[in-house]
Amino acid sequence: QVQLVESGGGLVQAGGSLRLSCAASGGTFSDYVMGWFRQAPGKERESVARVNRSGGATTYADSVKGRFTISRDNVKNTVSLQMNMLKPEDTAVYYCAGRKAGDSLYNYWGQGTQVTVSS
Predict the structure, then answer these.
(1) 3-state SS string for 24-44
(2) pLDDT tens-digit readout, 31-71
(3) Cβ contact 110:7 at 8 Å
(4) Under 8 Å CB-to-CB from 110, ≥6 apart: which residues?
(5) Are 47 and 60 in contact (CB under 8 A)?
(6) Which of 3, 27, 30, 94 can pair with 74 through a Cys bridge, CB separation 3.0 to 4.6 Å?
C-alpha cells in the first residue's frame, strides 16, 4: 500500500502563492487516482482537486477553479498543488489522498499540512 507525505504548507498573505507537494512510496503510484482535500476549523473536509492516473485529466472544486492547479509526476511519484491568488478562506489543513481506480473511497491519506492565508 502507498504511504503519502505532504510538504509545502505555511503562512502567506492574501493574493500570494504556495505549492504543496505530496511524495508517495510503497506502491505503484500510477495505479492511484490522487486528490487534494482540505479541512478548515469547524468545517467538514472537502475535495479541492483530483488528477487521474496518467495526469491527463483534472477536476477542481468551484471555489478554487482558475487559482489552483494539480499535477503529478509518475516518475518521481509526486503530486503537487500549485495555489495562486490565495484567499483567507483557503486557510485549512490540506491532505493528499489516493485511491485505486475503481475504488469509490480514498483509502490512503497523508498527515496533512497547514496552510494559513492572512488578510
Answers:
(1) EECCCHHHEEEEEEEECCCCC
(2) 999 999 999 999 999 999 999 999 999 999 999 999 999 99
(3) no
(4) 4, 5, 6, 22, 95, 96, 97
(5) no
(6) 30
| Cα–Cα distance for residue pair 84/49, rounded to 1 Å | 14
30-64 core/surface letters (b: 16 or more CB in 10 A; e: else) = eebbbbbbbeeeeeeeeebbbbebeeeeeebeeeb
- Indicate if the pLDDT at residue 102 is higher than 90: no
Cell of 28: 505503484
Cell of 98: 489516493
**Over the chain, what is the mean pLDDT?**
96
Alpha carbons within 13 angstroms on the beta-carbon side of residue 105 total 3
Return the C-alpha cell found at 31. 495505479
